[in-house]
Amino acid sequence: MIAFFVKRFFQAVVVMFVISLISFSIQDNLGDPLRELVGQAVSEEERQALRDEMGLNDPFLVQYVRFASKALQGDLGDSYFFKQPAFDVIMKKLPATLELVFGATVIIVLFSVPIGVYSAINPQSWFSKTVMGLSIIGISVPVFLTAIGLIYLFAIELNWLPSYGRGETTQVWGVWETGLFSADGLKHLILPSFTLASIMLPLFIRLIRSEMMEVLQSEYVKFAWAKGISPRRIYFLHALKNTMLPVITVGGVQIGTMVAYTILTETVFQWPGMGFLFLEAVNRVDTPLIVAYLIIVGAIFVVTNTFVDLIYGLVNPTVKLAGRK
Amino acid sequence: MKKTALLFAGAALALSIASAQAATLRMAYDADPVSLDPYEQLSGGTLQLSHMTYDPLVRWDRSLGFEPRLAEKWERIDDNTMRFHLRKGVKFHSGNDLSTKDIAFTFKRLQESPDFKGVFAPFKALNIIDDFTFDMVTNEPFPLILNNMTYLFPMDSAFFTGNDADGKPKDQLVKHGDSFASRNISGTGPYTVSYREQGVKVEFDRNANYWDTKSPGNVDKIILTPIKEAPTRVAALLAGDVDFIAPVPPTDHDRIKSNDNVDLVTMSGTRIITFQMNQDRVEAFKDVRVRQAVNYAINQEGIVAKIMKGFATPAAQFSPKGYLGYNENLKPRFDVKKAQALMKEAGYEKGFNVTMMSPNNRYVNDEKIAQAVVSMLSKINIKVDLKTMPKAQYWPAFDERAADMMLIGWHSDTEDTNNFFEFLSACPNKDTGAGQYNSGNYCNPKVDAMMVKANTITDPAKRAEIMQTMEQVVFDDAGFVPLHWQNLSWGARKGVDIEPIVNGMDFPYLGDLVIKQ
């Protein structure tokens, strides 16, 4: 187990290094950060002087080494726009994004498992057919459109839910600013969560359905029927457990992807999370913030994948973690 | 004991009466201010904030005239000097009194600010006469003293003197990185900042000691949320989640107009959108007939009607109506036949190829405008290779003059005609900085001479005559392609009376805003 973690840790370090190198080398192509810092009428000399002052005119390697040596000490640089350490800025926005991902995950789990199982058991029912049809539409509609549609229906026409933002937030343990513990905050969470879930939900329903159908055809399930075990036990204990294995693998990867999709969802809902922050940073050419974001998201990917591997081992004892003989 | 209780009850009653009239404004702009320092960046966002938390010496009224604010009155003493009399009894948010000390302090910061020092370059000195009187002295007779004074938002010198917790001077002006002035405000304006989380929310409280007791404004709290996506911003207004939004995208105007609960206010703006034709890169553009042909080929009215949905004013010159240099004889000259004839005359009947660049997220519909111009130019056989890009990449390309035709929009920082000429059409000169944004390299020494002269004439009528001639000459030379002036738009819930407080400069005077219900 320890060997597994050590190996993962070194993988993570390599991943971060590569990410930092790539994100650092694309920054020249993003545009000129100076333009976002000064007014239009400021002369070229003034801008050059500022560039010198900020070290932007140094050769690539000099800039990278300067960045890397600071990064090793935990300093990812200061955001141009926020004028604060980029790491702190992102950490402040992280809870909002994680809550959004959490909300979407809850929705996906709550809906995909029962619907997937039901439509696997009753593939010919009208409900299953409708769900399958809708899921095709769900997969193909862009997030942006889903979001606007939901806002139009629930915020403007029905006026049930707020149209943007995070609403009232409370501080928990002094560090975690959360919207989960107030009615207003939860109301604000509903539309963005459904929007984010809309990308993954159809995928998971279809995945669970097809896996479940396959499992229901297997010998051991047939044997269970022959033994006269109650349908509920067969479906939800024996069959579902084996269905979940590939679902967990895909799920782990998709949670990472979902963090990426938060960029769009957060932008439409003006959700103050780190996805929106990233998009704004790209628009403003706030390079320290961009680099820090990519590194932190890289870390999130590595951590979630490690967890998925661990959970996989728990669900299926025949799977061995790397390093364990 | 009883007396105290009674007193409290009375106070509570008084408070509740006051708050019955007071109102909260929830508003959404497309962005929130970059910094609380009024002189860190010369941008629309900064000026909007400055007009909420500070007061200028004078401010623009809606007909581009001057309204006294912290300066009560002023007079010209001689050609190079103007004397200002400061309003008495004005207090900063900190409780300090406003005096000429603060003016001198602010003026010094203005001269150090990379963004503002250009605007204030014509000033030689600020002489303090007494606590409430001072003279602004210019190097030469300067007509735009009052225009510049709209940028002088006196800062609290006592508040910003000394060192902050990190040992850095409180008045330090930092373009990138943290500073005391970028996080703290003490102005004389109608609002103080009570809470700020950058990119998320800014909350303002009414300044209880605001000097302008005649202001009808009854808003005692403002909550500003940036909402970047235009559809979401509009949705927030329509859903009643906010009371006031700006800007409103042209595509949503009809939706807002047709809704009974919200109002749309539009106004013609002063930002000109233009194309420049690079004479150094394209031989043909050296020929005035070719440049005229390009101008004749482009249908400004069509662009405004079809692409801008009427949300712009077709232009044939730099100066919008209301500016001294506005020449009312100049009209868009769309005429394809004439354009083709001019091309033939110049020997380019078969046309030629050019490259074109345009930003795609800087101006309203910038990319679509460029595409329309491409198809219009194909009528006179000019084949255009168009490349569009985000503004962050566009400006470095613009600095390199990377294409034969480039799109640029310009707003005159001084609200004066000459500013357009100085930046967009003056003969490019690296040393003086003239023509910094003249990617066309159009150069007419006669126009430049008039421009320099106009800067030293203080008689408005004479200035107007010269500047209108300049517009005429550049029009005849077809020095560039004017397209239109972008309009401005605001949306508000019914009862939020924004009509009287918005203006063409796009800094609403929110201190005077009245909410009826």
Structure description:
Chain B: Belongs to the bacterial solute-binding protein 5 family. The complex is a heterodimer of chains A (325) and B (517). Chain A has 12 helices and 2 strands, in the order H-H-H-H-H-H-H-E-E-H-H-H-H-H. Chain A is mostly helical and 325 residues long. Chain A has one domain: MetI-like (MetI-like fold). Chain A is globular and about 85 Å long. The mean pLDDT of chain A is 83. Chain B has 517 residues and is of the alpha+beta class. Chain B has 3 domains: 3-55 and 158-266 and 488-515, Periplasmic binding protein-like II (D-Maltodextrin-Binding Protein, domain 2), CATH 3.40.190; 60-149, Dipeptide-binding Protein, domain 1; 268-487, Dipeptide-binding Protein, Domain 3 (Dipeptide-binding Protein, domain 3). Chain B is 30% helix and 24% strand. In chain B, strands 1, 8, 9, 10, 11, 12, 13, 14, 15, 16 and 17 form an 11-stranded mixed sheet that branches. In chain B, strands 4-5-7-6 form a 4-stranded antiparallel sheet, covered by helices on one side. In chain B, strands 2-3 form a two-stranded antiparallel sheet. The longest helix of chain B has 20 residues, at 2-21. The radius of gyration of chain B is 25 Å and the shape is globular. Chain B starts with a helix and ends with a strand. At the A-B interface, helix 2, helix 3, helix 7, helix 10 and helix 11 of A face helix 6 and helix 12 of B.
Structure, briefly:
By secondary structure, chain A is mainly alpha-helical. Chain A has twelve helices and two strands; from the N terminus they run αααααααββααααα.
Q: Determine the CATH superfamily of chain A.
A: MetI-like
CATH architecture field of chain A: Orthogonal Bundle
- Main CATH class of the largest domain in chain B: Alpha Beta
The profile of the biggest β sheet of chain A is: 2 strands, antiparallel
Keywords (chain A): Cell membrane, Membrane, Transmembrane, Transmembrane helix, Transport
Main location (chain A): membrane
Protein name (chain A): Peptide/nickel transport system permease protein
Pfam family, one (chain A): BPD_transp_1_N
